[in-house]
């Protein structure tokens, strides 16, 4: 029996705070194995003493012994797959995989802990109520903007991504009004053109939601809501991972406002596309 299985057996006997720790240990064993108790407490949203009390409740001497138990679990899981290492995967590569994915998890958890519930709910409401939605993200932020645009387009109409050329920018801004919402994604050093577009949109009473890597971004002057993902010291790839997780949560929040309506739109779109199979072939002609 793994140590996580032992935690599950004792779960009901733990206090509310200790259950939070227990669930985190079960869901994120790699984080437990590589972080100290105080960091784990911050990620969960409990005090370090609660983490330690959880260890005592599990009849352990402290957090170090919990780490050893979890590391044994992780090593055992690898050994059960094969008694010898895979010929194409070295130990160094496995450690790199765990390290990179742990950093992604940490970036997402950090983002989750700094986003307020009211801020999130306000953003979801704006997404649901806006008649048209524009997405802005240039250079390094362009893939994230495309991800948001494609995801939203699956569930609602009037979603446009602003392309980085003068004609597209002027055209899309001319279509904005007080019932529009502009999503600005700026995950790198902020460019002047992004600020200019945000200002022009705000001058037309457009609602603006910004996703950025800095809480002191100049976009704060124009954004109704500003989400900060990762931290300024976080690597860009990890910031993008956290941004995509936030985007996923925002879209799910929008769907929850009227799930039947959005799912019906998705089904209708899928039926229309299925009636035009030649469109896919045309792309390769």
Automatic annotation (TrEMBL):
Taxonomic superkingdom: Bacteria
Stretches assigned to the SIS domain: 123-261
Pfam families named among the record's database cross-references: HTH_6, SIS
Keywords: DNA-binding, Transcription, Transcription regulation
Biological processes annotated in GO: carbohydrate derivative metabolic process
Positions of the HTH rpiR-type domain: 1-77
Keyword Transcription regulation: yes
A molecular-function term among this protein's GO annotations: DNA-binding transcription factor activity
Name of the protein in its database record: MurR/RpiR family transcriptional regulator
Organism whose genome encodes this protein: Ureibacillus yapensis
């Amino acid at each position: 029996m793994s140590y996580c299985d032992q935690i599950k057996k004792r779960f009901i006997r733990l206090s509310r705070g200790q259950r939070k720790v227990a669930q985190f240990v079960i869901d994120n064993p790699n984080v437990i194995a590589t972080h100290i108790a105080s960091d784990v407490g911050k990620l969960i949203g409990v005090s370090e003493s609660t983490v330690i009390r959880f260890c005592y409740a599990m009849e352990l001497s402290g957090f170090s012994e919990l780490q050893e138990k979890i590391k044994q679990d992780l090593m055992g899981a690898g050994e059960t797959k094969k008694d010898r290492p895979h010929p194409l995967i070295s130990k160094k590569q496995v450690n790199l995989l765990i390290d990179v994915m742990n950093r992604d998890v940490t970036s997402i958890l950090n983002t989750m802990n700094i986003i307020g519930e009211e801020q999130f709910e306000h953003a979801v409401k704006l997404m649901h109520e806006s008649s048209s939605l524009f997405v802005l993200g240039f250079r390094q932020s362009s893939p994230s903007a495309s991800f948001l645009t494609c995801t939203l387009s699956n569930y609602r109409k009037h979603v446009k991504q602003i392309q980085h050329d003068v004609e597209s920018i002027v055209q899309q801004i001319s279509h904005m009004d007080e019932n529009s919402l502009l999503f600005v994604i700026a995950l790198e050093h902020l460019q002047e053109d992004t600020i200019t577009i945000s200002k022009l949109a705000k001058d037309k009473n457009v609602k603006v939601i910004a996703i950025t890597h800095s809480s002191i971004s100049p976009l704060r002057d124009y954004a109704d809501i500003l989400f900060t993902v990762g931290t300024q010291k976080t690597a860009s790839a990890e910031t993008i991972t956290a941004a995509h997780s936030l985007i996923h949560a925002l879209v799910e929040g929008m769907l929850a406002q009227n799930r039947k309506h959005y799912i019906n739109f998705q089904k209708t779109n899928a039926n229309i596309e299925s009636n035009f199979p030649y469109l896919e072939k045309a792309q390769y002609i």
